Amino acid sequence: MFIYNMLVSKIIIAAYVLTASLSLLILKWGTNSGLPVSYINSKLQFNLNAYTIAGLTLYGLSFMLYVYLISKYDLGYIIPLAAGFVYILIFVGSFFVFKESFTTIKISAIALILFGIVLLNLDK
């Protein structure tokens, strides 16, 4: 039963990381086209289309997974772990989807994040 619980926990962490990363990439994609929607005297504006709706839906799902994760794990463990993996996936996804640049500084930052994730898991 312990191994089953560990496996389920890892799957939920992976599901959170994937849904959070994909939702942000899809929202970014959706901001480039669609019907503009404005609030507060046009100070807050975004484009409403299938991509933004899909991104918001995925973001809502990732939020529910996040709430579950923070209820089951120490905050000092799960938040850096999840945020680190989300950042890395967004970095890689934005390179391939939006042709954003890799720089030495960004790659060094990713290496430090990975090193921090490894250190966090040494204690577990």
Structure commentary:
- The chain is mainly α and 124 residues long.
- The chain has one domain.
- The chain is built from four helices and two strands, in the order αββααα.
- The protein has a two-stranded antiparallel ribbon.
- α1 (2-30) crosses α3 (75-98) and α3 runs antiparallel to α4.
- The chain is globular and about 50 Å long.
- The mean pLDDT is 87.
Strand order of the largest sheet: 1-2
Shape designation: globular
**Total DSSP E strands:** 2
Any idea how many domains? Answer: 1
Task: Classify the secondary structure makeup into a structural class.
Answer: mainly alpha
Q: List the secondary-structure elements in sequence, H or E.
A: HEEHHH
Strand residue percentage:
5-15%
SS summary, helix count: 4
Q: What distance lies between the first and last C-alpha atoms, to the nearest angstrom?
A: 18 Å
Biggest sheet record: 2 strands, antiparallel
Rounded to an integer in angstroms, the radius of gyration calculated over CA atoms is 17 Å
Poorly predicted regions: none
How much helicity do the residues have?
over 70%
What is the residue-averaged pLDDT?
Answer: 87
